[in-house]
Amino acid sequence: MAQPDTKKIFFENLSGAGKAIAVLTSGGDAQGMNAAVRAVVRMGLYVGAKVYFIHEGYQGMVDGGENIEEASWESVSSMLQVGGTVIGSARCKEFRNHEGRLKAAHNLVLQGITNLCVIGGDGSLTGANLFREEWSGLLTELVEQGLIEADAVQKYSALHIVGMVGSIDNDFCGTDMTIGTDSALHRIIEVVDAIMTTAQSHQRTFVLEVMGRHCGYLALVSALACGADWVLIPEMPPEDGWEDKMCKKLSANRAGMKRLNIIIVAEGAIDQNNRPITTENIKNLVVKCLGFDTRVTILGHVQRGGTPSAFDRILASRMGVEAVLALLETTANTPACVVSLRGNQSVRLPLMECVQMTQEVQRAMDGKRFEEAVKLRGRSFENNLRTYKLLAHRKPESELPVSNFNVAVLNVGAPAAGMNAAVRSAVRVGISEGHKMFAVSDGFEGFYKGQIREVKWADVGGWTGQGGSLLGTKRTLPAKHVEKIAEQMRMNNINALLIVGGFEAFESLLQLYEARTTYEEFCIPMCMLPATISNNVPGTDLSIGADTALNAIVETCDRIKQSASGTKRRVFIIETMGGYCGYLASVGGLAAGADAAYIYEEPFDIKDLQANVEHLTEKMKTSIQRGLVLRNENCNENYTTDFIYQLYSEEGKGVFDSRKNVLGHMQQGGAPSPFDRNFGTKISAKAMQWVTKKLTETFRKGKGRVFANMEDSCCLLGMRRRALVFQPVVQLKDETDFVHRIPKEQWWLKLRPLMKILAKYKTSYDVSDSGQLEHVIRNRPKESDASVAM
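^ ATP-dependent 6-phosphofructokinase, sequence as received from the core. Prediction below:
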């Protein structure tokens, strides 16, 4: 008999009654900070704690008075989509002095606050930890000065601190992504995409400076996302003589009919002697050596501004709730911790371990130990750098290995943003591995018709930022045409297959695996990359294209909600795509601040609909003016979007009116988000390296051909929690509901109670994944380099 899971706790066991939690934002602002503040306030109130804003960061804590304000549920309404931080942030010299911290302690004790949630960078978090260590001594001083009663020392004996990292630079060790980084990448990529059109018109070279005084993450990832010709970052200065190499590369690209060049420079870029490399230096170099028309664009504070992306809103909301849970569980002996992201999982890490490693990176750079600095940044950063070098710098033909293997790549199913980035990555990595790469047009329909052509390095230039599928994609499955496909594989001597697509791609791979018993042509390494906006493929937590679709949903919901501003109370019913999979409705609902999201995986009836209407009616009687309800297109055949709209319209009469909107195919279109470009690029590169390994292992020298018929030669590469894992497709059959085309278990269902809590519903929240304080790991095992958060 199975033992009950003793780790499975629900937050009802964690009471915040009698506790006071204060939240502040400190240092530089970052998009998503408001989402974190909102989550802390609402989760804190939900568990019965008093929650306070501290305005203007540590300065507000030192000044006290009106800067420390009790928060209410309504006070954080409509802040989810706002950039920056609405409670203000300021750098505070006073707090660095003992006297300043003494004032801050006094102001906290006056309000009974002993739980602090600090959202900021490493400087802000280090200051918070020092404050915590001095706390008991500060209280003793306050008693001696007669500012507080003696019993307050016992009553407020310990200060508990939990940090969340808000920084667009992503320069904090221990987390894959910091709050604000993804939004900053959105701003950069929007500018780069716009600049590319004008650069192409005039055959210009553009030198772009992005933020990152001590960290090259934004420069590196944006270079990867737009296919920049050259990137300069502080962690890995270019080798001596880089000027000639760069000019040769730019010249070669122009000779190859490329009409523009993009060079991305981190503001802290340096050479091997720690001398700064500026955008003006590079412009003058290109003009002098090549005579190219060259312009400089410095993005500056544009990167900090604008609305937070869907990723940042979800990350900040998850981190905010996790921070409150961490504060509820702390004891006097618990070290200050930060809540952070590893792979797709939230974790808690000792604050000072993270700070010390972050400081080690700078020391390594100052000491010119640049390889060490890259390693200390973490496997995600290292992987990004390796992938960029692999894709941006083509080796001379003489240096390429000769494999004599032919690898075909195709798209199957509906188009998804990021597919083209994956194909570009596959083609270029394949060529670097010595393979001949073949592109198949229009999926398996094109395959059996013989629409197969060899593709070269330059053929996929500029593909990264293109939406849809440039190869063409169809939903046709191979089963009916398996004989013709086998014939085409024989004629073109195809030795391996890479399929990029959604659920149809998964079914196709299963059919090809089963066809191995009849056709030896399919006894080759075959790999699938999940690419679908529905995120309904088994064996992976995330799919290429889903992030772009989420951003489209969230941007539209923001606009729709804004359309009601200044009007009477209004509820919007929004229909999303996804087939039977409720990922877009649920996660989009969390990111957009929805009041409810109806999905197939969580059955509902008329009583639930009625309860939702009543809940919204109660909320509308307060200062909240707008409601948002999302509905997955196939959540229920009877409770259609029209039905729900009419029900809300009828039952809300006199309190609110209703509007409906079907988002449709706008969720499938548009340029891919930075996340999808990089996710597609990185997992495709990893898949091609797996293909090379399998081709080498399964090549039969005696027969002079590849023969792979084992389960592990037909795999799906998916992201599972913290790891990128190759899984045999036959082993995923039992995890799949083929009728409804969804996995039987889906991780994001755990996020649904979070959406309900933040919308003021009473519900259970599973915290079985929480509560474990981990440690910063310098070199994680190779398989755990998921870091799909870029």
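The chain is about 40% helix and 15% strand.
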